[in-house]
Amino acid sequence: MVYLTRVEHFNAAHKLYNPKWTREKNEDVFGKCANENWHGHNYELYVTVKGKVDPDTGFLMDVKKLSEIINNHVLELVDHKNLNMDVPFLEGQLCSTENLAKGIWDQIQPHIPTGVRLHCIKLYETPRIFVEYFGD
Ligand code: NI
User: Fold this and answer.
1) CA dist., res. 14 & res. 96, Å (int)
2) Active-site residue, selected from the candidate residues 39, 68, 80, 91
């Protein structure tokens, strides 16, 4: 089994706010991310696929194709956007890095070619905080 990772980058605004709670509780739980007037993050996205090497190409999959999938189904939807307001696949969810990673998985997974499997979405919200999602 070979693992292949493509790294992408996007910027987006969000806030973490649970409407069931008071403002004080939101600030307690989410800290600066609860700021009512939004804030941004520079997200680093690592998309890893796995499978066998094709003897005809020496590739697991065409990495340009992987990049295209990420661009069309994720970056076009989230880059320079407000995650709470602009992104259909996050509608009705808290815009945490966890939910964003899961949403990105669901956006990419159906487009991965036969014989290759999506292995991991790793998403850095800051250089020191990241989430990994393996699809279960
Ligand atoms: Ni935040």
Assistant:
1) 9
2) 80
